């Protein structure tokens, strides 16, 4: 299916809202079973790592199973990064549709996340590239590539910060 620009925006806003409202099952439903979720680290100030199996990554899951395991830890208080609870607010800007056909959509956007924990507001910002599988009844994220631009952070980073 071909998606309108507005439908793509709505998809992204709904995914971000699911994170902000900690509706984890709803958030996981945005992802294909074989999604690659990759946030590389900075090798130096101008170069990102690009091989998640041989270089350091900030977050890497080769499938939705990794995301499901992460959500399980968050929901069962087995995540030290999540205790105490963190409140987040995501904002998405500069959405570009890079390419699209009947089964696939490539997009890029910038994001900012405000996070409140330990009486401190932290701000994370970066950009994301998504590949959406649009062959089914609803779009699913097949690839999520995240660049965190402020990689000097005070707390542990988790899936809801990005």
UniProtKB/TrEMBL annotation:
Record-linked InterPro entries: Benzo_1-2-diOase_ssu (IPR017641), NTF2-like_dom_sf (IPR032710), Rng_hydr_dOase-bsu (IPR000391)
Pfam families (UniProt xref): Ring_hydroxyl_B (PF00866)
CDD domains cross-referenced by the UniProt entry: ring_hydroxylating_dioxygenases_beta
Keywords: Oxidoreductase, Plasmid
One of the protein's GO biological processes: 3-phenylpropionate catabolic process
Broad EC category: oxidoreductase
Recorded GO MF terms: benzoate 1,2-dioxygenase activity
Enzyme Commission code(s) on record: 1.14.12.10
Family, per entry: Belongs to the bacterial ring-hydroxylating dioxygenase beta subunit family.
NCBIfam families according to UniProt: benzo_1_2_benB (TIGR03232)
Protein name according to UniProt: Benzoate 1,2-dioxygenase small subunit
Originating species: Polaromonas hydrogenivorans
